[in-house]
Amino acid sequence: MSKHDTPMLDELEKGPWPSFVTDLKRQAETKPECWDILGQLELSYEDKITHWKHGGIVGIFGYGGGVVGRYSDVPDRFPGVEHFHTVRVNQPSSKYYSTKFLRGICDLWEKYGSGMTNMHGSTGDMVLLGTRTENLEPLFWDLTHDLNQDIGGSGSNLRTPSCCLGQSRCEFACYDTQEICHTLTNHYQDELHRPAFPYKYKFKFSGCANDCVAAIARSDLAVIGTWKDDIRIDQAAVKEYIAGNYPANAGAHAGRDWGAFDIQKEVIDLCPTGCMSMEGDELKVDNSECTRCMHCINVMPRAMRPGKEQGATICMGAKAPILEGAQFATMIIPFVKVEKENEYEEIINVIESVWDWWMEHGKNRERVGEAMQRIGLANFLSIIGVDPLPQHIREPRSNAYIFWRDEEVPGGFERDIVEFRKRHAA
Amino acid sequence: MALSKEELKAVIIEKAKKAPKPQLYLKDFYKCDPDSKPRIIKNIANELVREGELMYWSSGSTTMYARPDRIKDEEGAQGVND
Q1: Measured between beta carbons, which residues in chain A are less than 8 angstroms from residue B57?
Q2: What pTM value is reported for the model?
Q3: CB contact A361 to B (< 8 Å)
């Protein structure tokens, strides 16, 4: 029996698609506070203003993140959501769960919270929505002791690192994304749980340029798998695709009749750098022009494979559109080996060189990408000790931002102007 | 020359007591000792939280520090030490 009239929300139950309103009403049968969520949201629709107050001092003792305080500003009308804090739980690498674990999480949240979850937040955490302050410490105890799971990051912390499925299921992953995600999550426990930075900082690990965790769009540090040598081609398999014996895109678009596979139209003409061509019945790739975009591999996965010398590209500075609009990450290091044997030393060195500078010079609430924009790429590269490379130029003659310093030029810029004028009159 | 750990703790607490606003960014504490590295100051600020001298205040996206007796939490109570 509904506790509040919600005519506007009820409209959202109409239509063939799933409705969060229906879900909330179902949940309210066992968790009556969910009626107050609906009531408060209906009031927000009427008033055209949110009735949530964000933030506060709530948290797990000693942790500077993982709990986001949330309160109702009309608690007298909706006492069930007077406190409605969010808890972020660190997801396992690649979000692999046993059903036993998921039942454990759901049981825990039915016990201490609203029972509502968001699987998963955009950072990757399991998000548990809605609990009271007095439930936080017992929840944390059970979460860590019974389920052996920690809370994730929030605030000015390192946010919960996330990764794609990587080599666990994907033959195209150019490095073990799960291993580095797990290792760096453990390595940076202090940064993850206690505020260290001017603002949030996110790592994401994708095994290839398909970028299944959207690292290039959502993370301050995106480690995206790539290869250095030539793309591998099985010419016999190419012929099978052309003959229609192998389904293109591994059959992913087989639900409709798109006509016969056309390698020219579907692969060669769509190559962003135009590096592919047919010579007779052989597919040729000019590897010096290949940008490792993965398109041809996705269309003909039995014929094309990443090269054997595999590693990752490091991009930095993506963010969501809070200040100056959404921003993709900028390529900083074209190729780096991703090796567990040296405990990812090369990548850790890059991470910490950026942190050392950003902690000191980043403005409050300024993401790394914004700080990079503020000082310019050339200065940023100099600060983190990366030499300018041709790959840093987006397009020829459009962002020629590298200026040589006096000490970098043999003989410097000092010259004898009198001697010069003898040869070049003013 | 950088301040000792105890000296730094004292100036951070003093700053948190006297700053016009109760909530301070971590960067605000950098000014307490320009000779100390940001990481040192971060570690000391977090240690002061463990000791109960400071508290975290988080909006969800940003975290700030405050003296417990200077911030009221949203539940209407005074700081936890009161």
Answers
A1: 55-57
A2: 0.90
A3: no
CATH code of A190's domain: 3.30.413.10
Q: Under an 8 A CB cutoff, do B75 and A133 touch? A: yes
- Tell me which residue in B27, B39, B79 faces A364 most closely, judged by beta carbons: B27
* CA distance to partner chain A, nearest, from residue B42 (Å): 6
Interchain proximity B26–A196, CB inside 8 Å: yes
Residue A360 is part of which domain span? 162-228+309-408
Per-residue pLDDT at B79 exceeds 50: no
- Asked if the Cβ–Cβ distance from B49 to A64 is below 8 Å, we say yes
Q: Find, in chain A, the residue whose alpha carbon is nearest to that of B28.
A: A364
Do the domain assignments include residue A413? Answer: no
Output the domain CATH number for residue A73: 3.30.70.2500
Number of domains in chain A: 3
A13-53 pLDDT, tens digit per residue, is 999 999 999 999 999 999 999 999 999 999 999 999 999 99
Is domain B5-68 annotated with CATH 3.90.550.10? no
For residues A277 and A320, state if they share a domain: no
Rounded to a whole number of angstroms, the distance from the CA of B57 to the nearest CA of chain A is 5
Task: List, for residues A115-148, the tens digit of each pLDDT value.
Answer: 999 999 888 999 999 999 999 999 999 999 999 9
Asked whether the predicted pLDDT for residue B77 surpasses 50, the reply is no
The pLDDT, as a whole number, for residue A413 is 83
Q: Domains of chain B: which residue ranges?
A: 5-68
Could you check whether the bond before residue A193 is cis, i.e. omega within 30 degrees of 0?
no
Q: Is the ipTM of this complex over 0.90?
A: no
Task: Phi first, then psi: give them for residue A225, nearest 5 degrees.
Answer: -60, 145
Structural domain includes residue A173: yes
Domain assignment present for A90: yes
Is the CB of A154 inside 8 Å of chain B's CB atoms?
yes
Residue A267 contacts residue A300 (beta carbons within 8 Å): yes
d(CA A29, CA A35): 9
| A15 & A123 share domain | yes
pLDDT at site A42 = 97
pLDDT of residue A109 exceeding 70, the answer is yes
How many angstroms separate the CA of residue A226 from the nearest CA in chain B? 32
- Put simply, the answer to whether B56 touches A64 (Cβ < 8 Å) is yes
CA distance A313 to A178: 17
CB contact under 8 Å between B58 and A69, yes or no, is yes
Asked if the structure places residue A155 within a domain, the reply is no
- Looking at the structure, do residues A208 and A237 belong to the same domain, yes or no? no
